[in-house]
Amino acid sequence: MKFRSALAGFLLLCSACPGGTIHSNDPDGSVPGGDAAPDGAPGPDAALPPSGLVDVLTQHNDIARTGANLAETKLDVAKVAGPSFGKVFARDVDDQIYAQPLIVSGLSMPGAGLRNVVFVATVGDTVYAYDADDPAATTPLWKQSLLLAGERPVRNTDMFGACNGNYTDFSGNIGVVGTPVIDRVTSTLYVVSRSRMVGGQFVQRLHALSILDGSERAGSPVVIQASVPGNGDGAHNGVLKFDPLRENQRAAMLLLDGVLYMTWAGHCDWGPYHGWIMGYDATTLAQVVVHNTTPEGSGGGIWQAGQGMSSDGTFLYAITGNGTIGDDTSTGSPVNRGQTIMKLKRSGSALHIESWFTPYNYYALEQGDLDLGSAGLLLIPGTNLGVSGGKGGWLYVVDRDNMGGLTQNQNADDNVVQTFVLNEPYHLHGSPVYWKGPSGGRVYAWAEEDFLKAFPVLPAASAQPGQKVLDVDNLEKSLVQAPHQLPGGSYAMPGAMMSISADGSKAGTGIIWASMPSSGSANNEVRPGVLRAFDASDVTHELWNSNTNMDADDCGSFAKFSYPTIANGKVYLASFAHQLCVYGLGQ
User: Fold this and answer.
1) Residue closest to 190 by CA, chosen among 169, 175, 176, 170
2) Short-list 366, 407, 371, CA closest to 389
3) Is the dihedral of CA 276, 280, 285, 287 positive or negative?
């Protein structure tokens, strides 16, 4: 194995460590689903953040998607609840931000010296690099348009058949939507753009940008194209082709073992569309993996409300939404897997389903447009368990090695470790997050029209079906409820998008950061937003929110499905008000 590939593999595995930095921040150095990882890694100093600083290189901090930065030493419960915490500055961008902001610390920028840098991508197909700390540094370190001459971003009005021609899930441009990923070893940011060309054709491209100046790397960008054998919806002569207009690259990217993985779903179930997973070599940008979730059916999109596919360092985990289940011979066939949690392993250019779970009531979920895949899979560190939920309002705990398939029981999912009502009939969109504090581990979830809920993880829990892993009898609930009780009985979507900061498991440091609409439903409208902070050890204690002093702290419109980023004493919040807001401690 060459040194470069070996180093990349180590760093990518270790990016699964809670905290999302290149080195492990977990006190025991554990990696979910793997062996202990040493503190630090071999290789050039440029691949590591300076001592005391952290990077956030991927969506929700790590490839286990815990949502946690466990190396936050500047922000704690007392300081955030005190008078000096608030918005310290904001940065203008050209359009709405769906992607989560990413952080590279201690980066030597040409002509600017050593900087902590925040990277932001917009639906206007523009990527920005800003100084992450200096309120006076109002000019971008660089910005890069991903459009070629004469092109424009894809727009919601281009989706002429979605929602019967009244497509409002997006309110305007649909350029960069999925969160990019950064490889610090090669100083490269990878991102997918969507645009309409001069002749009217639609195109999606994979870009590899230098994080130092925004320039395209050699061979970048590449046009995203794919086809697979199949006779499913939209096939011609036994072949299904990727449609750059109908396919929505919503979920965050994943970088694993030198391969960039990205997924697609549809727009308002506008067919024909399918769930696609593609992998590209991070060095050459050559396509190396293609997988279609419903080649003999339809749907099965992977969107996960913006959450990226999860990984334990070896396997991929993805959740599909509405779509065909099984084939003419069996509902258990792996050929078509809508409404399914999947464990996947790469073999050459293909992905094979190693294990999977489909809820017993999949037909009712399908008929009610209740995507199981409206949230991603959280991998609980130190265990073999995964947690997720969907629009059905239930939470599912699965054994990652034996997810259970499809039960023959007509009334309950007796084939999974645990399942229970979260807030039926309301949806879960923001993926669950995890923190192990001084009193043990907790999984946090915040569904629409619900309260923030913290479920203790029972230390003696096993992975056997029917076992109690999350202690529903002793759940803890916030006093703050998400927007609710809309006229006409419609749901107030989407609940909260959450992240966690803490100094390991140290008491008084765990904080839940939740971005949500402050009123109404953000499903088909741009709504005012609020950022809230809660004591992770006592979610009844709200520490701070941006609506208390709106003149100073408001960030404008809620950024749907974008998660807060916490790093080095600051909180970075995306907005639909064409700005990035930065919160921290005042001078």
Assistant:
1) 176
2) 371
3) negative
For the stretch 18-59, pLDDT in tens is: 333 433 223 222 323 332 222 223 333 467 899 999 999 999
| Distance from C-alpha of 99 to C-alpha of 125, rounded to nearest angstrom | 11
Q: Sign of dihedral through CA atoms 276, 425, 560, 270? A: positive
pLDDT, position 485: 75
Token pair of 14, please?
């270790």
Contact 402, 409 (CB under 8 A): no
Q: How does residue 547 score in pLDDT terms, banded at 50, 70 and 90?
A: very high
Q: How far apart are CA 442 and CA 419, in angstroms?
A: 16
Residue 300 and residue 365: Cα distance in Å, rounded? 13
In the chain, the amino acid numbered 352 is H
CA distance to 61, 350, 578, per residue, from 27 (Å)? 17, 37, 39
Indicate if the pLDDT at residue 253 is higher than 60: yes
Domains of the chain in start order, with CATH, are 3-585 (2.130.10.10)
Beta carbons of 511 and 75 less than 8 angstroms apart: yes
The first and second tokens of residue 404, run together, are: 């259970």
Residue with tokens 């088909």, as numbered in its chain:
524
CA–CA distances in Å: residue 190 to residues 65, 123, 564, 567 = 18, 15, 20, 20
Where residue 466 falls among pLDDT bands split at 50, 70, 90? confident
